[in-house]
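ok here's Cell division protein ZapA:
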Amino acid sequence: MSQPDKTRTTVDIYGQQYSIVGTESTSHVRLVASLVDDKMREISAKNPYLDINKIAVLTAVNTVNDYLKLKEKVEELEKQVKNEKD
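and the structure:
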């Protein structure tokens, strides 16, 4: 079984450079990094006293919260579609 090609993309998040290796396209990695950067800056603007570690953790918490809400919504919609087919 062959492994998918991996790409290395350098991105800037909250003033720090990161080299991200993965199978996603460079444009996808840059979009993800941009969204993380935007969220960190949003949290920092509302809480300027927070250090970078707390900003990063709050960004992760916010992102996982959004993910779980969307996952729930998708599951609800999938149930609706299944019920409509039955």
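+1. The radius of gyration is 18 Å.
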